[in-house]
Amino acid sequence: MRVIVTCGPGCEPIDRVRFISNFSTGELGSLLASELQQHGFEVLCLRSRLATYPMPENVKVVPFSTNEELAKILEELSTNENVGAIFHTAALCDYRVEKVTTMDGAVLNLGKIPSSIGCLDITLEPSLKVIAKLRAWFPQMLLVGWKYEVSGTREEACDKARQQIEKYQLDASIANGPAVGKGFEVMFRGDEARHAQSSKKELVHFLMTWLSKRKF
What we know:
Elements: E1 2-7, E2 12-13, E3 19-20, H1 27-38, E4 42-48, E5 60-64, H2 67-80, E6 85-88, E7 95-102, E8 120-126, H3 134-137, E9 142-148, H4 154-168, E10 172-176, E11 184-188, E12 191-197, H5 200-213
Helix pairs in contact: 1-5
């Protein structure tokens, strides 16, 4: 079975030499891709160019940078590839740069904004929500999302993961981040049971075992 794993931080350009991004290293996606590959799955990793965690040499990698670039790759794969499951671990950007202006309101469209201009205003707008497109592109595939939460309680983070399942028609969603604390909480569609995993190693093995038991 072919499995897609998205991996690492998205980025959105400010100008041709600067961008906004996040602190993701791509570790979890790399570990998951390696675990699946070792257990007989054909893995394609859509990996951010900014990911720093080492990638196993035996896993096929297609690089991406922005949300739009990743979306284009996935849409093309939906028409050309037989995919059984997608694990969307990539930490994409929630916002993109709409415009950059000087303090007097002049819009800048420079390849490299010089520091001599002084203070700037950067207007952000919501970026493309790739996870919202997946079910339309892959109507029969298993889709797994991640819900990283910084604030709130563990229960609130789990509720948001369940909401993500319903909103985007996912088969599973995994809550993690400071709100969850140590480890991960795995939720499945139509299953009220939560499956706690204490480490990334345990999580990737759990997901590999779950996928192995599915019938296609």
